[in-house]
Design a protein that fits this description.
It is a single chain. The protein starts with 12 loop residues before the first helix and ends with a helix. The protein has 117 residues and is mainly α. The chain has one domain. The radius of gyration is 23 Å and the shape is elongated.
Length: 117
Amino acid sequence: MATPAAEERHATWLELFFGLVIVAAVAQLAHLLHDGVTFEKVLIFAFAYYAMWSIWTAFTLYANVTGTRTRQRAMLAAMFGIAVMASSSAARRTADTRAAPRCGRRRSRRRRALATP
């Protein structure tokens, strides 16, 4: 006798949005390595990526087990936490670029006006 197949489950809109948040967060995190690859940046990327990936995996498994009983507040809180991690990596990137020396920049209008005879 054949056993009836389990009913096929489709992802909810919240799960799809969670996946989109993860993609945006990882893309934001990848910009950390755009300007130059250093050991510190790779280490930050690896830890942050692992944190985002493990949260996403845990909630995906949770949603698969619970089905329609998925707790929306918990998923929204996880999405918020991942968005905070992604924005902190962007803040780190802009802080690194601001700290860089400004060699070879164009002179301001006032300096150019004073320099011309």
